[in-house]
């Protein structure tokens, strides 16, 4: 009988080890990758509060906000394999019968600057219990750092619910670059769990045991296999968290108060309008097309509106022919040039607190033969620092 018990124990151990190696198409996720992928487990209180809620059988909402990596797009052939969808499935698997919904709030070519403006509308309004924040790649694009706006996203998510868990997720560009160092500093300040896809796979890529083309569709977007790995890292963390969950809710750890800002709380106080929401004071030469974009032709025009805040932002498209022909005038001050490729970065900073009268001026410009459009477009606007 004793020998039989030992044999069963050995078989169980073998089975456990076997389950720790998962194949994502051709990409194997090893235990070493899982360990490297956990930058920090963070303060367990919020995560355990979510797991306890799921254990009680209460509905759960899992969300993610980020850029095109989170959105998936053409880089992923199977939408069900995007990491946020798979993360929601983990809850269904671990808590049979649990009602789980997911929110994928990823938008391509956007960073945490735009994310801070829209997180209330696109994520918080959905009342998620767990939110994954993914901006490590897009927050490196351009010259200015985006630590301030990234902190704004975190503070809005944490401040809008005492029980909401937030996980930071770090991907990287093919050259290994990302905003992970700056975002890790913020994660440690707020005691957040942090998962690094980069830390998990980079040594494998450098050693040649894993090929970039196996897990990426291009230089920045993970394919289905890449999303499988990201999900495996996230679920590994959740498995470890679940294993440490107290048996009784009364033994759950106390939730810590949100600390003072590390950098700034400017982007924790934002306002945003979409094109359809904008009610301009005047619109000479501008037309709202199909309620989703304002357009100004090559003859030029002037669009005037009001917005409160200290940092002003404007989502736009400026054709090559209109380069250096679009300006922003705030409260009748000196015209500020609006660059073509702002990548969701501020168009005016350091404004006084309060309401501002903003004018977008387009000087007449010619038509480019290399482009299909001769329209200056505005998709959205907003401000931080209310």
How does this structure look, described?
The chain is α+β, with helices and mostly antiparallel strands and 386 residues long. Helix content is 32%, strand content 24%. The chain has helices at 2-19, 31-37, 45-55, 68-71, 83-94, 112-122, 147-159, 180-190, 197-207, 212-215, 224-243; strands at residues 22-24, 27-29, 38-40, 60-66, 100-106, 130-134, 165-170, 194-196, 270-274, 282-284, 286-289, 293-296, 301-308, 311-317, 326-330, 336-337, 355-362, 376-384. It is globular and about 65 Å long.
> What is the strand tally?
18
Q: At CATH's second level, what is the architecture of the largest domain?
A: 3-Layer(aba) Sandwich
Helix content: 25-40%
Strand order of the largest sheet: 3-8-7-6-4-5
Residue runs with pLDDT of under 50 for 5 or more positions = 4-26
What's the domain count? 2
Could you state the CATH homologous superfamily of the largest domain? Answer: SGNH hydrolase
Topology as a string of helices (H) and strands (E): HEEHEHEHHEHEHEHEHHHEEEEEEEEEE
Radius of gyration: 24 Å
Average of the residue pLDDT scores: 91
Largest sheet: 6 strands, mixed
CATH topology-level name of the largest domain: Rossmann fold
CATH class annotation of the largest domain: Alpha Beta
Strand percentage, roughly?
Answer: 15-25%
């Amino acid at each position: 009988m004793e020998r039989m018990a030992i044999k069963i124990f050995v078989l169980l151990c073998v089975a456990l080890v076997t389950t720790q190696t998962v194949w994502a198409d051709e990409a194997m996720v090893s235990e070493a990758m899982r360990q490297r992928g956990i930058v920090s487990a963070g303060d367990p209180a919020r995560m355990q509060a979510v797991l306890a809620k799921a254990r009680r059988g209460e509905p759960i909402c899992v969300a993610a906000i980020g850029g095109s990596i989170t959105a998936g797009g053409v880089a992923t052939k199977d939408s069900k394999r995007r990491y946020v969808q798979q993360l929601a499935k983990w809850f269904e698997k671990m808590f049979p019968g649990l009602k789980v919904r997911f929110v994928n709030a990823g938008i391509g070519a956007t960073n945490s600057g735009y994310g801070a403006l829209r997180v209330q509308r696109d994520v918080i309004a959905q009342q998620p219990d767990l939110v994954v924040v993914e901006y490590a790649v897009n927050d490196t694009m351009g010259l200015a750092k985006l630590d301030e706006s990234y902190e704004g996203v975190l503070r809005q998510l944490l401040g809008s619910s005492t029980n909401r868990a937030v996980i930071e997720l770090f991907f990287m560009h093919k050259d290994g670059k990302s905003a992970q160092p700056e975002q890790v500093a913020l994660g440690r300040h707020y005691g957040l769990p942090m998962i690094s896809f980069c830390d998990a796979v980079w040594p494998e890529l450098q050693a040649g045991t894993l090929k970039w083309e196996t897990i990426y569709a291009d230089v920045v977007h993970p394919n289905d296999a890449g999303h499988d790995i990201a999900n495996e890292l996230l679920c590994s963390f959740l498995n470890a968290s679940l294993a440490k969950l107290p048996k009784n809710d009364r033994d759950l750890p106390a939730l810590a108060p949100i600390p003072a800002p590390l950098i700034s709380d400017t982007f924790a106080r934002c306002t945003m309008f979409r094109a359809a929401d904008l009610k301009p004071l005047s619109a000479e030469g501008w037309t709202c097309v199909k309620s989703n974009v304002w357009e100004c032709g090559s003859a030029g025009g002037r669009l005037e509106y009001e917005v409160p805040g200290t940092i002003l932002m404007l989502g736009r498209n400026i054709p090559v022919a209109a380069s250096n022909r679009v300006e922003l005038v705030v409260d009748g001050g000196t015209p500020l040039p609006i660059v073509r490729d702002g990548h969701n970065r501020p168009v005016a900073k350091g404004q006084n607190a309060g309401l501002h009268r903003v004018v977008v001026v387009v000087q007449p410009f010619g038509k480019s033969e290399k482009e299909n459009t001769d329209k200056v477009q505005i998709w959205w606007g907003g401000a931080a620092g209310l």
